Amino acid sequence: MDNRNLFAALRAAFPADLGAIAVETDTGLAYSWSDLERGTAMIANLLASLRLEEGARIAVQVEKSVEAMMLYLATLRAGCVFLPLNTAYQKAEIEYFVGNAEPAVVVCSPANFGWVSKIAFQAGTHHVFTLGEERNGSLLERAAQHSDRHEPVMRGADDLAAILYTSGTTGRSKGAMLTHGNLLSNAEVLKTYWGWREGDVLIHALPIFHVHGLFVALHGALLNGSKILWFGKFDPKKVIERMLDATVFMGVPTLYTRMLAESRLNKVVARNMRLFVSGSAPLLLETFNAWQERTGHTILERYGMSETVMLTSNPYDAKDGERRGGTVGFPLPGVGVRVRDDQGRDLPAGEIGAIEVKGPNVFKGYWRMPEKTKEEFTADGWFRTGDVGKIDERGYVTIVGRSKDLIISGGYNVYPAEIEGYLNDMPGVAESAVVGVPHGDFGEVGVAVVIAKPGAQLQPEQLIASLKSQLANFKIPKRCFVVDQLPRNTMGKVQKNLLREQHKGLFA
Ligand code: MCA
Ligand code: AMP
User: I want to staple 477 with a disulfide (CB 3.0 to 4.6 A). Which of 105, 329, 448, 487 is the partner?
Assistant: First the structure.
């Protein structure tokens, strides 16, 4: 049986000259393809030496680094399951993920070892390593003792490769189980569809704990044997400075609006680029138009999910049609997209309904949540995205909203239900509602509206400070109001749309 291990496919695409540079970092480091080969082999051998059970999870919460990227590739190589965690997550969040996923190994940053290792050991994890941003920490020290030769473990297309937590709109996060086949099939489709070619160079400025940076950008470059210009953190000036040396860039809308704010951005610096991809959150038409006017390039917007990797894309080749701002393009080859009403009937072109999808890229289900998984698939096996949209008569998909209560802020998902849960647990709070309002930089941010218990005196800044001490920083509402009552419909349900309307001018 041929090995369908994703790493084997990525490794097969390495250029013949392994001495060539694979990654150049914004801190002046250079890694050859041979460094990637040897580094991932040594880490894979370290993992193999631990004699972990089949399907063992490797949970990772470390700052972005090339070594962190190698840890991801080594996890695939060793046939384990990679579980990336946002570096902004704090104690309560990590406790949930580690308790739910029960990883065999946890890798954390040296600074967090104290509290992370305690959580890990309490959850039954036997191995906790550290990995710093300066190629320091116990993981690399231990890996250095192992051979730099390793045969990728045999894996089938249906075997798990990664688990990505994507919070449930109602309460706790769900672990989306992605297989080697989900990831490889999608990477192969995108390689062709986005015209990856000899000589391409990718600018990688996204985090590597989410789908966009970890799979879409990274797999795109690796599966094409392309050099990566690696940025530990997004800095618009630095990215613009390196654009002349690159051909492909992927980002969330916030990255585009921040680069547009730089006077250095113009047609000259962008003249060697061939592709700018945007996704993870809606790209405003004004951003789409401003980019075209300023750089001469038409951003290619695409649509994906943690549960499905990429679903649709605006065309790369003009022969397939124009890139239409405000739409997310056509279903990718092999992907089914349909729009249905709430009786489950297909809607005619142009009518708005629930977006459902199907294809080899659609995940296996939610980790240890068979009931929840079943709810999210239709009887005929289509996945309910929770997005609301339409398909026009030319086949373009447009996302017009979400049925799931979700705020996408700077490309990160923020779930009002989770924030409301924390607010409602605070002394003196009777009830709360968190809604998304437009924001010039992050696209959309959360605003909290809170009702005090009779006689309680609530200070908004104290509520925010309390949230900050418990939740990832990007989730914290940017404003908090204490009010006497919340607008409700006849069924007594809070009318969040009225709250959004009331506060929509806060950050415009
Ligand atoms: C940072 N802050 C934020 C966000 N990021 N607030 C709201 N939303 C955010 N996204 C706040 C911090 O809390 C902090 O506030 C202050 O901004 C500065 O923090 P810092 O980390 O320095 O911010 P930054 O460097 O400016 O980060 C902004 C960013 C980052 C570069 C846009 O958010 C980012 O890299 N976003 C990309 C997310 C991503 O990869 N999405 C793909 C998901 P304070 O000082 O008060 O604490 S995958 C996906 O969605 C699907 C599958 C798909 O289709 O791709
Ligand atoms: P995640 O939960 O991180 O997988 O994010 C997936 C969600 O991001 C999708 O269900 C959409 O709501 C949203 N999304 C992704 N790409 C786009 C896009 N191009 N335009 C609008 N929303 C998007």
Answer: 448
Tell me, using a 6 A CB cutoff, whether residue 389 lines ligand 2: no
| Interval between CA 302 and ligand 2 midpoint (Å) | 9
The helix/strand/coil state of 313 is strand
pLDDT of 489 reads 87
Q: What is the pLDDT of residue 169?
A: 57
Closest Cα partner for 451 from 437, 433, 467?
433
Specify if 266 maps to a domain: no
Tell me the sheet residues that pair with 377: 383
**pTM reported for the whole predicted model:** 0.96
Residue 248 domain flag: no
Residue at 40 is within a domain: yes
Give the Å distance between the CA of 476 and the centre of ligand 1: 12
pLDDT for position 403: 81
Collect the ranges in the chain with pLDDT lower than 70.
168-171
The confidence score (pLDDT) of residue 404 equals 80
Q: What gap in Å lies between CA 168 and CA 95, rounded to an integer?
A: 17
Residue 145 lies inside a defined structural domain of this protein: yes
Residue 45: the pLDDT is 98
Residues 378 and 449 in one domain: no
Taking only Cα atoms into account, the Rg of the chain, rounded to an integer number of angstroms, comes to 23
CA distance 445 to 133: 29
User: Which of 209, 278, 313, 387 has the most ligand 2 atoms within 8 A of CB, as the residue to mutate?
Assistant: 387
pLDDT at 360: 98
User: Domain total for the chain?
Assistant: 3
In terms of Cα–Cα distance, which of 423, 369, 312, 439 is closest to 168? 369
* 353-358, strands of its sheet edge to edge: 336-340, 353-358, 383-391, 397-402
